[in-house]
Design goal:
- The chain is mainly alpha-helical.
- The protein is 63% helix and 7% strand.
- It is built from five helices and two strands; from the N terminus they run ααβααβα.
- It has helices at residues 4-23, 36-58, 74-80, 85-106, 125-145, and strands at residues 66-70, 110-114.
- The protein has a two-stranded parallel ribbon with strand order 1-2.
- The longest helix has 23 residues, at 36-58.
- The radius of gyration is 18 Å and the shape is globular.
Length: 148
Amino acid sequence: MPDLQSEYAWTALLIAAIAYVLVAGTRKAAPKLPFHSPCKQAVDATSKSLRQLLVRIIRQGRIPQHIAFIMDGNRRYARKRQRIASSGHVSGFYRLAKVLEWCNDLGIGNVSVFAFAINNFNRTPEEVQTLMELAESKLRELAEKSDL
């Protein structure tokens, strides 16, 4: 009899690897060339087809019923791009929405998101307020406008 923990671990590792590959599109944008738009459309269509194929492959194995994410690095992401911290948090919420869609596609019914640690209250009051308002608005948006 196969070791179920081992199967879950490999499935979770595969999901994490695929999420990393799909999320890793954080490189600086290339200059726009005349053929940029058709190329981007082709890449987007290929990406979507590849994602659908990977979902079908993953669903052949055991899928965890619950997965958790720790949102970390949004401020570093913004700083590396010479933007204000809140822009990194906005980008993080949009990426979270995509990851939740992928979880939904895979049939993962329960997702926990750890987005704010108690020590984050040590940040400036403005940043804390911005984070709270952002969380409220984006969670409402997810609830109202998605199938999640």
